[in-house]
Amino acid sequence: MTQPRLNMDWMLKDLATSVPQTRHVIVLSSDGLRMAQHGTDPDAADRLAAACAGLQSLSTAIAGEFPHGDGQMRLVVIEVDGGFFYLMAAGAGAFLAVLADDDVDAELMGMRMRDLVARIGSHLTSPPRVGGPVT
Fold this sequence. Notes:
By secondary structure, the protein is an alpha+beta fold. Helix content is 35%, strand content 25%. It comes from Streptosporangium nondiastaticum.
């Protein structure tokens, strides 16, 4: 029996509405599965989640090269023409991703993302998958 999926979409809406110029907010598992979304359609959210899985894996590999750290990725920010992409660790096996326009207040975005993760971090945990169907 599987547990019901917690609807976090309203929490993501709060982040999006509190930071002007926010486009998309998604929560994903470390293997790239969308857990919640706001501001985008499910197909786009799924594409972003899949891309984020690769990015978090790459950034974790880079974090492992620092001798005094814990080897874990905390935050990735990418600036592209037209905007910013943020990816933040948000619990065991879960990540918070945001796309925002280029005139977003980056300090406010970072602060609101940290607040959201702190407030609901236990809900943003994606436990590891174990086993498969028993035949």
